Amino acid sequence: MNERLSPPASDPSLSAGLPSAGLQPGCWQEEEAILAWGRAALYNFLAAVFLEPPDERWADSLRDGGLAEVLALVATADEAKALIDRMACGDAGGWREELARAYTRHLVVPGPDYVPPYGSVYRDGPNGPPGTWQGRPTLWGPSSVAVAQAYREAGLALAPGGPQVPDHIGLELQFMQHLCACEAGALSRGESDAAAAWRARQAAFLRHHLLPWAPAFCARLDSEGIHLFYRLIARLIRAFLESEREETEL
Fold it and tell me: What is the pTM of this model?
């Protein structure tokens, strides 16, 4: 039975639920497994940002400082101060509603501040080369079909109730989380050949699917009129994917 690309639990912790590698301390498999689990956790966090609007736990985590510390790494001094001041205002309900409205405005309902979260819009647009978005958005283009095929080859399917266009940014990030977790699991069991195969699958998906359009999406998300939270998330994704590009020598 196929495993499904169901939305990750809305746990904003970057290390929540990560198992121990279960290997001898200091061996290279343990170090590589820990790194793979860490990458899986970050992909899981980023996927959750786009697969569902921030709920009470998300907003509370931001206000308690956990996520704010991460986002401050990619913020200017003024932006970090603005984010901290907003979270410290004491209006927890208002903060949650503000984030939920921003999620809908930027990622769900087309409008002046809408940023399409689908790869085919940037890769298969009618008037622009790959990596750009020009003209009327195009969904379910050739790139969408190719992404769906990559999911099927890994034994995954789209879950009911979630995004049904396979190249949604949240689904592609979640797929990378799955591949990293599979690599980590193989390393934890001492299966170096299987781990290498999962690592190769990650590199292929980054090269052929995520990297060709995610930077353009992030550039649009990090622009005037977009809520500061999502602007900082866009910068975090760009920085992380650039490190992934360098690590995999793409």
Answer: 0.84
Distance CA 93, CA 229 (A): 16
Beta bridge partner(s), residue 5? 158
What SS3 class is residue 144? helix
Max Cα-Cα span within the chain = 55
CATH 1.10.3480.10 fits 29-248, yes or no: yes
CA distance 221 to 27: 41
Q: Which two tokens stand for residue 187?
A: 């390393």
Q: Per-residue pLDDT tens for 9-62? A: 433 333 333 333 334 444 557 889 999 999 999 999 899 999 988 877 776 766
Q: Position 16: which residue type? A: A
The pLDDT value given to residue 169: 97
Q: Are 118 and 107 in contact (CB under 8 A)?
A: no
Domain coordinates of the chain in residue numbers?
29-248
Task: Please list, in sequence order, all residues whose beta carbon lies within 8 angstroms of the beta carbon of residue 220, skipping any fewer than 6 positions away.
Answer: 115, 133
Helix (H) or strand (E) holding 23: none
